[in-house]
Amino acid sequence: MEIIIPSLSSINEAAQQFLAQMGDHKVIAFYGKMGAGKTTFIKALCQTLGVEDVITSPTFSLVNEYTDREGNSIFHFDFYRIKKLDEVYDMGYEDYFYGGSLCLLEWPELIEDILPEEALKVTITEEADGSRKLKW
Fold first, then answer.
1. String of b and e for 83-113 (b: at least 16 CB within 10 Å)?
2. Origin, by domain of life (predicted)?
3. Domain tally, the chain
4. pTM score, two decimals?
């Protein structure tokens, strides 16, 4: 599947479309270069789900927890600074990935060996015209 986001002003519509098409996936891995829009799209997803917290990339904390409008937990991971998989083992990743909550992952290529088989892998690319393309 594929979604084109022509501009930042249409990102919330794209988030709604993505949520409608993602199926029952609970672990969503976002791939893309620095600046591709991973964090920005995750913010839009969380806002669409009714998160009222300030949504920031957990680059230093590794994981942020948000609560959606129905009281469900959403976990936002940023593995950019991971040096060894042991760091992810130590944080108890299995409780997150297999606990039934929505998990949104940035830089999943750094933990590819432990990604759940059923994780939805989404690639975000910046197109020549400045639009973004989501593909899975």
1. eeeeebeeeebeebbeeebbbbbbbbebbee
2. Bacteria
3. 1
4. 0.96
Domain span at 52:
2-135
Q: What is the CATH number of the domain that holds 79?
A: 3.40.50.300
pLDDT score recorded for residue 25? 98
Bridge partners of residue 9, in order along the sequence? none
Whole-number Å distance between alpha carbons of 30 and 41:
9
From the centroid of its chain, how far is CA 99? Answer: 16
Q: Is the pLDDT of residue 13 over 90?
A: yes
CA distance 79 to 3: 24
In the block, tokens 């950019």 appear at 80
Please report the pLDDT score of residue 59 as a whole number.
Answer: 85
7, 96, 106 from 27: Cα distances, Å: 26, 9, 11
Count the helices and strands in the chain (H runs, E runs): 4, 7
